[in-house]
Amino acid sequence: MGSLSKKNAYLCTMMKKITLTLALLTQCVVLLFSQVNLFPTPATAFRGRGVFYVNKHTLAEGNGDYAAQLAAGWAESINALGLPEHDAVKNRVRLNLNKELNLKKEGYTLTVSSEEVLLEASSESGLFYANEALLQLIRFYKGVLPVLRINDYPRYEWRGFMLDESRHFFGKETVKQYLDVMASLRMNVLHWHLTDEPGWRIEIKRYPKLTTVGAVGNYHDPNATAAFYTQEDIKEIVAYAAERHIMIVPEFDMPGHATAVCRAYPEVSGGGEGRWQHFTFHPCKDETYEFINNILDELVALFPSPYIHIGGDEVHYGNRSWFTDPDIQQFIKDKDLKNEVGLEHYFIRRVAAMVAAKGKTLVGWDELVDAGVSPARAVVMWWRHDRRSQLVKALEQGFRVIMTPRRPLYGDFVQYGTHKIGRFWNGYNPVEDIYRFPDPVVHLMKGCEDQIMGLQMSMWTERIADKKRLDYMVFPRLVAVAESGWTPAKAKEYSLFMQKLPLFLNYLDSKNIYYFNPFHPDARLEPAEPAKKEDVLQDG
Ligand code: ACM
Q1: How much is the pLDDT for 217?
Q2: What pLDDT does residue 539 have?
Q3: Cα–ligand 1 centroid distance for 313 (angstroms)
Q4: Which tens digits make up the pLDDT trace of 291-336?
Q5: In testing the pocket of ligand 1, which one of 163, 254, 257, 313 has its CB within 8 Å of the most ligand atoms?
Q6: Is the minimum distance from the CB of 382 to ligand 1 under 6 angstroms?
Q7: Is 314 annotated as catalytic?
Q8: Tell me, what's the pLDDT at 1?
Q9: Which of 18, 276, 326, 434 fits a 20 to 30 Å CA distance from 136?
Q10: CB of 413 shorter than 6 A to ligand 1
Q11: DSSP result, 155-192
């Protein structure tokens, strides 16, 4: 190469480096100047000059039923914030719901000028989120809003939180409080894990022993008083969630993790011994499928969600009796199912057909990928972070996928290195890892991005027996989950998120919610767990 072309190549490389640096700098500057105190961070925001004073003369008005309903609740919400008095200024908040605006699904715009705040959306959920965003702004700016324009919409349609109430039961007030916080964070799915080994937690009229027997006990104490939701409780909570644009998806885990059910109705039990007694349903009896079908009928009547979660995980832990039971072995032969795994998949396909016949879409843990269920009628929840192949296989087969890999999205892993109670598996789940998700796996989704419905934090509660410990494990990580579910990658910046996080911690204080404080890790005690009574089930 001659010296001239060497020089050209050098100049070319330098130019590329300068262009890249400038682009990065521009992105940082844009992010910095568009930073608003809002959770999750909006897709785009631009700050202007001037302020809007929220005060007792601020009027709120909406165009049409839903907007007017939100506007009517406005004064009350503002009063509840207990803002300092500002001089009376006549100004207003306008809520405008207009389908013709053609904003993105669940999207909204929020414009603050010194005379008016305008919230606009093409859907009720969009307008609801605009209103929640405004309430946050008022809180975080103490009623003196900066002039700004936000154009916001979610990255994913499924922004979820899973609560396991089988291991421990937390009750209506906790669930409602969490729904309030989720709404504020624009999260829209509560996946409710209501059935598992220690307890069955939902009244089923046709099978009363599910609650008189199945609801007795919890992870720490097999004799704890029966705890469950009545059908009236469920209706109340479903309605409360719907008002906040949150869908509740119930999980009825099967054929494994069915211990509480099979304890109550041994005639549908798959057998087993000791720690694994009653872990599975009996996979061959028609009676089992009839029983499940009847329960599903009541669940479908209670939960309007288009989805029903049927679990399907970890059957191999407790199906040893399938290998020795002569009836089960004969069934495998008769149906040409090859082996016990084939039988497990047969079970899942049969339940999938029931769910489809009820007009619902099935959701299952990622074992579902291998069960031979149609991807058109089922959604896979990817949880085994150490089996990325399961995510890839699900996408290749055409399934829609919800991501909740144990690392970093399981809430029962500790969130700080010195914490003692909770899971450590080659590491733990700090806020930062959640915040950076799904970066480590986006390359696996190339070409299938449309099949990713979203993500959720899954809160297993074996080692969480009370509200204080639950709060401590959930917060502030849930804020990072919300941001990973909502905010486009280009608008995320961890350091800016952490800069404003103390504002959310203050909000949690105002709601009496305990949390781990990442800025002062030793300032608050890690709540303890109770001692385990004997004979209680061990971890799977
Ligand atoms: C699971 O954690 N067994 C889904």
Answers
A1: 97
A2: 47
A3: 6
A4: 999 999 999 999 999 999 999 999 999 999 999 999 999 999 999 9
A5: 313
A6: no
A7: yes
A8: 45
A9: 434
A10: no
A11: S-SEEEEEEE-SSS---HHHHHHHHHHHHHTT--EEEE
221: number of Cβ within 10 Å: 19
- The CA distance from 188 to 179, in Å, is 9
Q: Looking at the structure, do residues 262 and 334 belong to the same domain, yes or no?
A: yes
Q: Do residue 111 and residue 196 come from a single domain?
A: no
Q: What is the mean pLDDT of each run of 10 residues along the chain (540 residues)?
A: 60 64 53 80 96 90 96 85 75 96 96 97 98 96 96 98 98 98 98 98 98 97 97 98 98 98 98 93 98 98 98 96 97 98 98 98 98 97 97 98 98 96 96 98 97 98 97 98 98 97 97 97 92 61
302 backbone dihedrals φ, ψ, rounded to 5°: -90, -30
Angstrom distance (rounded) from CA 276 to CA 259 = 8
Question: Residue 358 belongs to a domain with what CATH number?
Answer: 3.20.20.80
**What is the reported pLDDT for 186?**
98
Which domain covers residue 40, as residue numbers? Answer: 31-152
| Catalytic residue (choose from 61, 116, 233, 314) | 314
Say yes or no: 78 and 188 in one domain: no
Q: Are residues 147 and 167 in the same domain?
A: no
Same domain, 132 and 170: no
What are φ and ψ of residue 473, in 5° steps? -80, -30
365 lines ligand 1 (CB under 6 A): yes
Decide if 64 is inside a domain: yes
> Which CATH number does the domain housing residue 57 bear?
3.30.379.10
Q: Are residues 114 and 168 in the same domain?
A: no
Residues 222 and 122 reside in one and the same domain: no
Q: Quick one: tokens of 36? A: 């608003």
Q: Is residue 531 part of a domain?
A: no
* DSSP run (H or E) holding 27: helix 3-33
User: How many distinct structural domains can be found in the chain?
Assistant: 2
Residue type, 264: A
Amino acid in position 330: Q
Cβ-proximal residues to 362 (8 Å cutoff; 6+ apart), any chain: 307, 308, 309, 310, 351, 352, 355, 356, 368, 373, 377, 378, 379
pLDDT at 196: 97
Considering the candidates 193, 245, 257, 345, report the single residue annotated as catalytic. 257
381 alpha carbon – ligand 1 mean position (Å): 10
Those residues with Cβ within 8 angstroms of residue 409's Cβ, 6 or more apart along the chain or in another chain: 403, 429, 434, 437, 455, 456, 457, 458, 481
pTM of this structure: 0.93
Looking at 196, 366, 367, 462, which residue is catalytic?
196
Ligand 1: does its nearest atom lie under 6 Å from the Cβ of 344?
Answer: no
- Whether the CB-CB separation of 63 and 95 falls below 8 Å is answered with yes
Of the residues 86, 118, 152, the one at which a domain ends: 152
* Whole-angstrom distance, CA of residue 406 vs CA of residue 437: 12
Same domain assignment for residues 265 and 391: yes
Assess whether the previous peptide bond of 530 is cis (omega < 30° from 0).
no
Could you count the other beta carbons within 10 Å of the beta carbon of residue 453?
22
The residue among 525, 408, 435, 428 whose CA lies nearest residue 471 is: 525
